[in-house]
Specification:
about 850 residues, alpha/beta, 6-stranded mixed beta sheet, 5-stranded mixed beta sheet, transmembrane helix, CHAT_dom, TPR_rpt, membrane
């Protein structure tokens, strides 16, 4: 230590008197490069800190970029991925801010952008990975540097292969083959990646032919044979091919990380062959590579772990092999811990959503272990623990944003929190612009400019996150079963939370005093029953053309989902999951029926007042009320177009009668007016067209002049008491495990709305108008959206003016309410009547008394 300090002092003094700063930086970098180890790294880091305080000229900045790139490369080689990312990011920021590309031909792509993009991929930060890779592909295209452009295609293909988007991989590879100046090594890599994706798509013959069409090392040949046999389910042949690849491993030139992954693959293969001891040996070997001090035969200490997803593969397999439940859970919890370490570097919600699938699968395994233990011990604490695993994976991105907003409200003058929130909104704004650009002209320069801005925001958010974590160290979101049960007692309600896993659908039923868990087999038959019922609402004619088919399915699903267990409760909170996000529970039937008259059918809505929410945490939390109670309505109507909403105006008139409101019609119902005014009102009502989007286009909602896409909504800051989306499919969107549908309703939740009424399918204009008129009549009387939604459906069914066909649940059950059971406005009518009678009696008695006297 003393020696290091002496060297450092000598170096700085020498730098001051005998060298200029630029030369000193290059000298420090060259000294490190010639003797890389942890001691020289420590000295280099001390020198780097000093240099940062003194660099001024562009030449000095470029020298520091050179030093940082070499430092980051060493950190990456030695599995210090987080530090490597931070160092590369600082180098890139320095290079761009000082416009050093104009000063020198320093290869920023090779030295910084490529390894940084690869590091983002390694650590699961796919949003930043795509952005970074696309940036250097653009730079390579601009400079006609085809070697770098092809490298970009290779790394982009590897990234999409990691997240199982194999069709995208094939397109990237095929486009890359058209580029000039492909080296033989690059050609081999492209072909190898393509072969792997063909196998993943079960195109075995094409992959087999493709494998033979290029010259690969023996290691690559045997490795591809192993993958091919593994996909086919021939594990014995896969092991033979794997062993041959292992014999040639010296020619593969694998990094330590790649070598660890190789042993994990070996362990997975031994597990499939039911050879647990050999699997454990391979896993120990992988751990020893990643943790040189690890001795084996025990759980590693958390403090030794770092952000590396290979650990997750190792611990998950260790957990599966265990025969002891407690030990298995410890391994799974280590996986969750490493997953959290990885998430510390993610700044976009897309990255978190993409990575949630593995956490969900792991949660299902933990729940299954705990329920099996409960069968033996009957210890309710195990059910509570199982519920916690379910709740932890419920709308985690939404909950994180909600927590940040509430923390900012608690500390409204904190400059760090204000800056964080501004950056998050700006990030979503630029993401929205990027999506729109990619869907339209797709100008490469604009896309690159937006990608650079998003990268810069990501760096700022990471820096802020570190500072905020130090300032608010106890900022973990907590969940309390006791608090939940107190809320249920207050609402006279029961909560049902579903966890839709790969193998089971778990139903957690929580009342004010108890918790129960039911496991439903998630077989193909069960999944088909759910999807078939959902598809009954694809068109109005489906139900009416075969009413008996509907009634049979509605009762069968009622029994399947164990709704009958809730018969003692009027108020029910549903936390759906997976496919159940699209299910109208109110339209299920509580009993068998042969009736074809919809008004007489035993719908769930007649027995229970149902509300929904994205998680129990959302239902439990106390909402903050808007100061402005008035309503802002948007009614573009689209007159004289093929999208005209004829009955929308009647809906608006009903709102004006029942509430204090400002209604914007036709051209006034513009996107700009929404963006300018939405945050100023307590209730927002949008009567318009909407779309759930598809695999290319995001969910969106229409205004008179323009469309608002989902990511634009994410960038808003709203806090209304209620949002009513009187439009088609506002609760439908691409479904992600745990996070739910990427719908417009979710967009409003992300923007800050806690109570939302929205639709699950393409709704009918007339019936929607009738439902909405009834809704606002009850809402103005009761002040409770939950009660208003419930009574509007009952009123629709009981309305004699509506024919039987139009009383099909297609017309009235589309709207679901996500929120809480608000306390209704007190009804003082009876009190006033009694008070009036008493006053009359008193007056009469006084009159009689006065008359007698």
């Amino acid at each position: 230590m003393i020696r290091t300090i002496i060297i450092l002092i000598y170096f700085i003094c020498g730098m001051s008197f005998s060298q200029n700063l630029e030369e000193a930086i290059y000298s420090a970098a060259e000294t490190f490069i010639s003797n890389k180890n942890d001691t020289s790294l420590k000295l280099l880091s001390q020198q780097e800190a000093s240099f940062k305080n003194h660099v001024k000229s562009k030449d000095e900045q470029l020298a520091l970029v050179f030093l940082q790139c070499h430092k980051a490369y060493y950190l990456d080689e030695n599995s210090k991925l987080k530090d490597a990312i931070v160092t590369y990011e600082d180098a890139l920021k320095r290079f761009n801010e000082n416009q050093l590309s104009k000063l020198s031909d320093f290869d920023i792509i090779e030295s910084c952008l490529k390894p940084l993009g690869n590091l983002y991929t390694k650590t699961g930060d796919y949003t930043n990975a795509v952005s970074t890779i696309n940036q250097y592909i653009f730079l390579a295209e601009k400079s006609k540097h085809y070697k770098h452009k092809i490298s970009g295609a290779i790394n982009l293909a590897k990234l999409y292969q990691t997240i199982n988007k194999h069709e995208t991989v094939l397109k990237i590879i095929d486009d890359a083959f058209k580029l000039p100046q492909i080296s033989s090594h690059q050609k081999m890599l492209l072909q190898s990646i393509k072969a792997t994706s063909l196998v993943a798509l079960n195109k075995f013959e094409e992959a087999s032919r493709f494998n033979g069409s290029f010259s690969a090392s023996k290691f690559e040949v045997y490795k591809n044979q192993y993958v091919n046999m593994l996909q086919k389910g021939d594990y014995s042949e896969a092991l033979n091919a794997f062993k041959k690849a292992k014999e040639c491993i010296s020619e593969a030139n694998l990094s330590q990380r790649e070598l660890a992954k190789f042993y994990v693959e070996e362990a997975q293969l031994y597990h499939l062959l039911n050879q647990p001891n050999k699997a454990i040996q391979s896993l120990d070997q992988a751990l020893k590579i990643l943790l040189p001090k690890f001795k084996g035969n025990t759980l590693p200490n958390k403090t030794e772990l770092y952000a590396e997803n290979t650990f997750i593969d190792i611990f998950d397999l260790f957990a599966v092999i265990q025969t002891n439940t407690e030990t298995a859970l410890k391994y799974y919890n280590l996986s969750f811990y490493v997953s959290d370490l990885l998430q510390e570097n993610w700044t976009s919600q897309e990255a978190r959503i993409f990575n949630e699938t593995n956490n969900r699968n792991r949660s299902e395994s933990c729940i299954d272990l705990l329920l099996n233990s409960y069968k033996q011990s009957k210890n309710k604490a195990l059910l509570v623990e199982a519920f916690q695993y379910s709740e932890n994976r419920k709308a985690s991105v939404l909950r994180a944003m909600n927590f940040k907003k509430k923390r900012l409200k608690q500390y409204p003058n904190d400059s760090l929190l204000i800056k964080e929130f501004q950056l998050l909104k700006t990030q979503e704004y630029y993401t929205g612009l990027l999506i729109k650009e990619q869907l339209s002209t797709n100008q490469a320069s604009t896309v690159n400019s937006l990608s650079e801005k998003l990268s810069a925001i990501s760096l700022q958010l990471k820096s802020l996150k570190t500072a905020i974590s130090k300032k608010y160290p106890d900022s973990n979101q907590s969940f309390s079963l006791e608090a939940l049960q107190n809320k249920l007692a207050k609402d006279h309600a029961v909560l049902v939370e579903y966890f839709f896993g790969k193998n089971h659908i778990y139903q957690f039923t929580i009342s004010e005093k108890d918790i129960e868990v039911t496991s439903i087999q998630a077989s193909n038959t069960v999944k088909k029953s759910i999807t078939n019922f959902i598809h009954l609402f694809d068109d109005a004619s489906v139900i009416n053309s075969n009413v008996n088919n509907y009634t049979n399915q509605a009762f069968r699903l009622f029994e399947l989902l164990k709704i009958n267990k809730l018969s003692n409760y009027k108020n029910v909170v549903i936390i759906p999951d997976g496919l159940l996000n699209f299910l109208p529970f109110e339209a299920l039937l509580t009993n068998k029926t042969t009736s074809t008259t919809f008004a007489n059918m035993p719908f769930v809505v007649k027995k229970h007042n149902l509300i929904y929410n994205s998680s129990a945490s959302f239902y439990q939390s106390e909402s903050t009320k808007s100061k402005n109670k008035s309503l802002l309505g948007f009614f573009p109507a689209f007159k004289n177009t093929n999208q005209q909403l004829t009955h929308s105006i009647k809906e608006a008139e009903a709102i004006q009668r029942e509430t204090k409101s400002k209604i914007l019609f036709n051209a006034d119902a513009s996107k700009n007016n929404f963006l300018k005014n939405a945050s100023k009102y307590g209730v927002l009502h949008l009567s318009t067209h909407a779309s759930s989007g598809d695999f290319v286009n995001p969910a969106n909602i229409s205004f008179y002049d323009d469309t608002l896409i989902l990511n634009e909504l994410y960038s808003l800051d709203l806090n209304p008491d209620l949002v009513v989306l009187s439009a088609c499919e506002t609760g439908v969107g691409k479904l992600y495990k745990g996070e739910g549908a990427m719908s417009m309703a979710r967009g409003f939740q992300y923007a800050g709305a806690e109570n939302i009424l929205f639709s699950l399918w393409q709704i009918n204009d007339l019936s929607t108008s009738q439902i909405m008129q009834s809704f606002y009549e009850h809402y103005s009387e009761q002040g409770s959206a939950a009660i208003a939604n419930h009574h509007s459906k009952l009123a629709y069914l009981e309305d004699d003016a509506i024919g039987n066909i139009k009383k099909s649940p297609y017309y009235w059950s589309a709207f679901v309410y996500y929120g809480t059971f608000e306390t209704p406005n007190p009804d003082y009518t009876v009190f006033y009547v009694i008070f009036g009678i008493l006053m009359l009696l008193i007056v009469l008695l006084l009159f009689l008394k006065f008359k007698k006297s």
